[in-house]
Amino acid sequence: MAEELLRKSYQIHGRDFDKAGETASDIKDILKKIGVDAGVIHHTVVIAFEAEMNVVMYASEGTVTFVFTDEDIRLEIADEGPGIEDIDLALTEGYSTATDQMREMGFGFGMGLPNIRKNADEFNIESEPGVGTKVSAVVRLDASA
Ligand SMILES: Nc1ncnc2c1ncn2[C@@H]1O[C@H](COP(=O)(O)OP(=O)(O)O)[C@@H](O)[C@H]1O
Ligand SMILES: [Mg+2]
To answer: From ligand 1's centre to the CA of 137, what distance in Å?
Structure first.
């Protein structure tokens, strides 16, 4: 059994573009201080940033839970929001329902969920339309590549 060494939760507010990215950057700082492999940090930060942005762009409220164990890094992003009707479609590269305004800010290329999946050693997404979405991802400490 993996031993949990550190746990931190972050509250994310929908539409709060000013603070968008702060969670991912805090997680990056923590992992750098611990001295985690750069590849592992990269995978984790991509996942955290994309999931955090999805809460900001599409949901009303969310929580990012970051857990560091002696074997892996676990991220769970749970939100209250519209949910996702068709998860396979949402996971398709290039598919996005982002508004023009979001695209002008440089978001909404439809690569967030595909990149979360690619960067994770384990990935799961569950969503209930009208209720919310939960994304879980694990990055192993020994499998950077
Ligand atoms: N947390 C979420 N809540 C509701 N819908 C979401 C959420 N995350 C993603 N989606 C939906 O899935 C689509 C694809 O997401 P993603 O791959 O991150 O691309 P992008 O964020 O660039 O649109 C989004 O456009 C949106 O329709
Ligand atoms: Mg996205």
So the answer is: 16
